[in-house]
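Data availability (excerpt). The following record was deposited with the supplementary files.
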Amino acid sequence: MSDLLSQQMTALVVDDSPLSLSYLEGLLLDQHYEVVTAGDGNEALAAIKAHRIDIVFLDLVMPGMSGFEVCEQIKKNPATKSIPVVLVSTLSEREDRIKGLDAGADEFLTKPVDEAELVSRCKTLLTSQQLDVKLTATSDRHRDLTERLYMTTKELDRLILKSVQELREGLDAVMMGAGDAAGCHKRCVELEQTLKQMIDGLQEELDTHAVTLE
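Predicted structure:
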């Protein structure tokens, strides 16, 4: 597995046929996956709530809730929609694949499942899913940082305008002989220190952001 898939992954296998269930479970165990099994759609949805599932292998033709319906339920739930769903069936008609795509399926495997194809599809789907998670997290951090920078620069603008006004008034008073030159100088030093602190804070935020994007 790639670096993104260095931790052990958990697969959910859903099939009403014990033979098919056992066969696919065996293939996944050989590839060092943890495997959770379910015999129907309701069991599958319950298993997803009870376990941290990384990928789902879903039989299409089952009693009660079909594989299409289970897939739709998974993809409609914001908490589970990012989980890759692979539809597994003897059905190979174009219409069934279109229906599966409409339900949100990520991939298809035809029974009997070929081990090499299984390994390839798993690696591709899980790598893509992990990259999506990483990009989403980076995007969230970027958005939070952008908001903080906006508020900081807004405060910096306000302080600069206030400082310019105070300095102008102080210098005008000094020029007219009614102001305190020492006090004006002291205020200039204070404002310089404050502005430097704010600029240093902005630079620190930017440096932190650069590290998170690496």
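Summary of structural features: The CA atoms of residues 2 and 95 lie 34 Å apart.
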